[in-house]
Amino acid sequence: MNRSNPLTPNWSLRLLVMASCLFLAMAPAPVSPVPAWRKASQVAVLPITGPIDQVTAKSIKRRLQEAVADGAEAIVFDINTPGGELMATLEICRLIKYEAPANTIAWVHPFAFSAGTIIALACREIVVSPDATFGDSAPVSPLGPIPETERAKLESPILTEVIDSARRRHYDEQIVQAFVSVGVELWLLKNGETGEVIFVDSNEYQQIFGKAPPDELVKVSTPSTGENSIVSPFFDAIASSSDPLAPDSIAYEQLLPSSRPRLGPEASEKWALMGQVVADDRLLTLKPADAINYGLATDLVADQQSLQAFLGASSIRVYNQSWSESLVQFLVSWPVRIVLVVIFLVCLFVEMTFPGTGLFAGGSVITLALLIGAPALAGMAEWWDLLAVLLGIALVAIELLLVPGTLIAGITGAILLMIGIIGTFVSGDMTGQEMQEGIVQGILVILVGSFISMMIIWLISRTVDRGRFARGIILETELGQGRFDVVSTTAEDEAVAVGSIGHAETSLRPSGRVRFDERLFDAVSLGRWIEAGAEVRVVRTGLVLEVEATDS
Fold it and tell me: What are the residue ranges in the chain where pLDDT is below 70?
């Protein structure tokens, strides 16, 4: 009689257990639920890269409208910028707060300095890449240190903006001011009962604990990807400050009430010091661990896949800056504008010196159109800039074509032309300091471009064989059965001497061609225009042959 061995395993049960283990091993890891207020099926990503200017603001507005029209439920601003212009930054913040969907996320990926931080704070949430850094949003000037009064003027709109963002998004008002102003000294306190964290200045710390705060900076551990140790740093209740607000204070300008009241001695038992966050001799700059622990960032997002999981999205679409916007941004950069000034002046000189096909005149017109047109498309040119340029061109044309030699119209026109070009560096909405910077930058561009142009013109005058150069760009003229070569003279050329008599082959307005014997020469009229066929007399030889009508 066969008896089963009690030690013999039940193979069917073993197989069942093994299958269950295999199923559990192959099953996907549980996914953290996405809060309903954050979840978005269709997400639009708008990259903000490079310096921020008026072109960036216009591009953000266009892309934002396009994303909303396409049905985007959440807008992610993928930020990687060193900063930029104040007015463009404030315009982007306005778009985020008033024209974008409620679900806006700033993705610091990887840098958001200055203007980038201000834009990030305007969004409902901030997420950071593992290598992110943001902060340091104080206004700076390429002209050197900013005087105290001017700095206060520049900081005022920035502080107003970041405090408004803090009250809208429930960030700590004091810590956002530390991004902008040197001298904001803060300490981190944590509530032992609720886990909340807040930031206090030296005065509030002394009111709570009755002694001066220590100077030891807080140490923050680095979080690993996927972890979120954030504890809301603010009270949920919106209460007004217990301190009266002076009419000239930044907080007085806010439409929203302060996020929390200031604490007093009664809070000393509940709140414990974690350490100093920022000293009074530096601006606040944060890495991911600090941003998360301080309540400014909600999570680490390394790539688009992580972003999609963070929002619970079914699709993500990236709305990049268009090629035309990138082209305009390239054309309004100061190095390119220097090059355009050089091309404009050199082409104008060559056309005046070697009249002929009009090729260089066309080049000067095109470069001038780019110098004015690109800033106009970028919203950087005002109507008076364009008017000054048009008047300048008209006066220069009058000097060259109607009253040559008087210089008054020509000099006035050149000045108006330069003023118009410099004006494209300045926006009428800017503060005094930024307007000064724009004017200085415009003047430097004109001066540098003019200097380089004069060097090129000098080299052309010294090294180029004028006759050979002219023959390469000026069409030959046929008269009757014969052909006349276009030639030229220099100071050493004895073919045409001062006082020689010839005839205008073409109209000289003021440049054209004259004929001496069987040869044609490039020439410029001194005084009034000379019509074709009129008798002319050589007044001066050199790089340009100068003539006058014999009946003048």
Answer: 1-32, 141-145, 216-259, 352-358, 378-381, 399-407, 427-434, 464-495, 543, 552
What pLDDT is attached to residue 520? Answer: 82
Instruction: Answer whether residue 141 is part of any domain.
Output: no
Are both 275 and 172 inside the same structural domain? yes
- In a shared domain, residues 259 and 366: no
C-alpha–C-alpha distance, residues 57 and 52, integer Å: 8
Considering the domain boundaries, does residue 473 fall inside one? Answer: yes
| Residue 548, pLDDT score | 87
* 166 and 121 Cβ atoms separated by less than 8 Å: yes
Does residue 277 sit in the same domain as residue 177? yes
Q: How high is the pLDDT of residue 329?
A: 87
Picking from 54, 13, 15, the residue whose alpha carbon sits closest to that of residue 325 is: 54
Amino acid 489: pLDDT: 44
Among 307, 228, 309, smallest CA distance to 28 is for 309
Helix (H, G, I), strand (E, B) or coil at 298: coil
Per the DSSP assignment, residues forming a β-bridge with 110 are none
Q: What is the pLDDT of residue 52?
A: 93
On whether both 101 and 50 belong to a single domain, the answer is: yes
For residue 115, give the nearest of 53, 178, 169 by alpha carbon. 53
pLDDT of the residue at 399: 67
Q: Could you tell me if 432 and 329 lie in one domain? A: yes
Between helix 408-423 and helix 359-377 the angle, nearest 10°, is 40
**What total number of domains does the chain contain?**
4
Distance CA 94, CA 28 (A): 42
Give the residue from 306, 353, 331, 288 showing the smallest Cα distance to 488: 353
On whether the CB atoms of residues 352 and 105 are closer than 8 A, the answer is no
The residue whose two tokens read 């930029």 is 84
- Confidence at residue 77, expressed as pLDDT on a 0 to 100 scale: 98
Indicate whether 215 and 335 sit together in one domain. Answer: no
Angle, vertex CA 335, rays to CA 329 and CA 338, nearest 5: 110
Amino acid at 351: E
